[in-house]
Amino acid sequence: MDINLTEKLKQYFGFDKFKGEQERVIRSLLEGNDVFVLMPTGGGKSLCYQLPALIMDGTAIVISPLIALMKNQVDVINGISEDSGLAHYLNSSLNKSAIDQVKKDVREGRTKLLYVAPESLTKDDYVDFLKSPGVKVSFYAVDEAHCISEWGHDFRPEYRRIRPIINEIGKAPVIALTATATDKVRIDIKKSLGMPDALEFKSSFNRPNLYYEVRPKTDGVDKQLIKFIKANHGKSGIIYCLSRKKVEELAEVLRANDIRAAAYHAGLDTQTRSETQDNFLMEEVDVIVATIAFGMGIDKPDVRFVIHYDIPKSLEGYYQETGRAGRDGGEGVCIAFYSHKDLQKLEKFMEGKPVAEQDIGRQLLQETAAYAETSVCRRKFLLHYFGEDYPNENCGNCDNCRNPKEKVEGREEL
Ligand code: ADP
Ligand code: MG
Question: Enzyme group, top EC level (predicted)?
Fold first, then answer.
């Protein structure tokens, strides 16, 4: 295919060149292949389906899990052209007349990208519409494809129904995209989406500007945190805690110490959450203390530290959460506090769950514990977890490389 893609890139997005594998991904999709894209957060996955959607005939169906993200992407696409009807979304936030308008635009072939929430896609009404004769699907994009897998960090059962629904609407190439690159997740995605022959593109998951450190969790954690934050005065950071209660408590403690901190968790009402998010983006607040409900889709480029007050449930989640630091390429300090007691607490939480889920949960937890206890390079360990070989002996940017230990040094045994 001899389309000048660089020209199109410039025309639609104003960028001079492609990042990483973008161009090869796009060509493969344009040639009619199923494509599987593994790129870390910030790698530029959206463009891999946005650009071909704008070029190809028909409408690309983009399946994406978050309504807030969807709106944001649609606004971006519609901002790049005089013709503001290029992208639309269908989800539960729209009323009947808005939905009718979207359907009309799609039928008239004006809509190049149609974002659909997975739970909307499973509704008969939408399926009937998408398979009606007036609608021409150019391809399907499954964003955040790890949601298909129980081994991912954000399992959504509706994602499992995507393939049967695609078959019903009508076959077209599928592009699956994720920043989750463990083998188990990768295999699950290809299987569930029925794309055994998909062309795979994987870029490195290394984030050289992120510094990784694990500290033993002792009684003085709050003091350590306050000291750290004060030493980094005015910088933006996120502190993750496991429970909502801890989030509230810690935010209170920080505020009592004159730190501009705010709490964020799914138990707060929508308005409070969106205000907190805005305050963080506008730097009215320096530190967000949050559960993992905070972060997905928040694109603050200069987050300077991500601290895990409690050990995360999986390394996958840990990588995603720390990945929110230093997106601008600048400094990003990632510190996790670890204790054997927390590990036991997490294991206890799992007891009421179905056996299969417990097995998965325990295995993921064990890998996190191994990361916390290792004396090898943390970067090497993390990358190995994503099936990537880190060739350097010393990364120079993790605690173990900066201060090599004499094997295990008074750490708690598992
Ligand atoms: P991902 O979904 O992989 O996390 P995004 O698609 O959100 O990443 O892209 C991350 C950022 O990179 C966005 O701000 C996007 O505009 C930018 N970007 C993507 N492709 C390019 C490119 N070729 N040149 C410059 N910036 C790009
Ligand atoms: Mg993305």
Answer: hydrolase
